[in-house]
Amino acid sequence: MKPSNLDAPQGIFPKEEQTYAIIQHLSALVGLLIPTSFGNVIGAVVAWLIFRDRSSALNDQGKEVLNYQITVTLYLWLAGIVATILGVVTLGLGFLLTIPAMGVLWVLSLIPTIIGVMEANKGNFYRYPFTIRFLQ
What we know:
This protein is an all-alpha fold. Helix content is 65%, strand content 0%. The protein has one domain. The protein contains 4 helices and no strands. The two termini are 16 Å apart. This is DUF4870 domain-containing protein. It comes from Deinococcus cellulosilyticus (strain DSM 18568 / NBRC 106333 / KACC 11606 / 5516J-15). Keywords: Membrane, Transmembrane, Transmembrane helix. It is found in: Membrane.
């Protein structure tokens, strides 16, 4: 699927909803505080549940954030499985490349989150790239 914002809902967030949209995008950073591999998903779920009934726009953005965080977690788990297999097959040498690569992937996954926050701050909707749409 080609990543783009072309399928994003048209329009601008009302000013009073921009802060809530920003909070939803930032909610994934809870993953930095909760020492699990899915803290980012927990933050996104909580934010979506809190704000989804306030407006359809906030419901949409909450689902978008949640879909992205589930996708990122899935990709990182798959990378961890590959890292483990390579580490075992190469008697541990594979870990020298795969563990740092997973760290780089995790840091790169923060870039769309930052872009989402900036777009919400402008009042715009944001569609995360490379996201599996679990929630429609």
